[in-house]
Amino acid sequence: TERLQNVIEHQKQVKSDYLGYDRHCRHLGPDEIEARLKEKLPYTVRFIMPLDGETTVKDYIRGEIHFDNRRLQDAVLMKSDGYPTYHFANVIDDHLMEISHILRGDEWVNSLPLHIRLYQALGWSPPVMAHLPVILNPSGKGKMSKRENRAPDGTIRPVFVRQYQEAGYIPEALVNFMALVGWSLDDHQESFTRNELIKHFTLENVHKSPAVWNYDKLNQFNSQVIRGLRDEELSQALMPFLSKAGLAVNQQVLLRVIPLIRERITLLSEGPQWVDFYFQEPKSYDPTLLIPKKESPESTLEILKLSRTVLEQVSFTHETLYNSLKAEALEHKKKPGPFFQPLRVAVCGKTVAPPLFESLEILGRPTVMNRIDRAIELLTPLCKSNEESNG
User: Is 38 part of the annotated catalytic residue set?
Assistant: First the structure.
């Protein structure tokens, strides 16, 4: 081992176009080999590669690949500990298992001449060989790696299949996306069912060039699949994420909510942040969120009280709620958008939420009134502090 390291170091120093084993023991005769075995000297078993000409291999994707035999090493087949190397075991295992096609990354291309020569030496027909292009990371500057999972904004991106599942990617979306990383049917179709992929996928359409892993494109596929799910299917897909978030979900309520959030979620893991307030009291929020732009705590308190009065009196359907509150806003010379903000925050606990009036209808009058009362309680101290500072 030390001698081989010195040989390679010398090859580097003289800038040799060949780096590696110098075939030092290639021409040992049978008597010399026998003598060394009797001395119990450590040894490996190597495969003798030709020294001139070319080894030509047909790759299903790349076509014929030619290797200069002068640059090929006499590779180790059996290590000094008596165990076979991967290359030797791989060829034997694939033959015994009657493997018909070998598809692997193109970083294995340089192993082709050794594998083909081994098949020929053993008298076996090699399988079809196809070397797939590598997948590049989102920057396009390097191979996709399990260690490169941090987005530019610092967030952690999934790398392992389990992480994609935990992030809320749907299997159909991930399979569809992965099929198009390095393969295409034509220049326009992107969406495929699994059966369509089975029908259309061929090695002839696999690209030779590396493909870039694009999270934005994957997210687009995932949102498309979500939008195509039936209400019941999306409800079931969301349940593990809602349960993990600690939400006690009423299935009938969730089915009414699904149409309101379907267009808003890209990942299933985003479900809890959109539906939590339907199943539990909104968590503590900053009462200043209740106050629209250009409104004061006092005027916002008045808006909440006006809204409460209207909601006590009208039918609790989303059309009636919208029309009644809009009319109330206009009567008091308020724009409907800012007029609705205090009610949205009071009921949902946030400024961005599913459609307000459909949500009010789902929650029902008692729950909505209780949450408005809570908002009034939170806002009242701000009005008092304003009075004190003005006084």
Answer: no
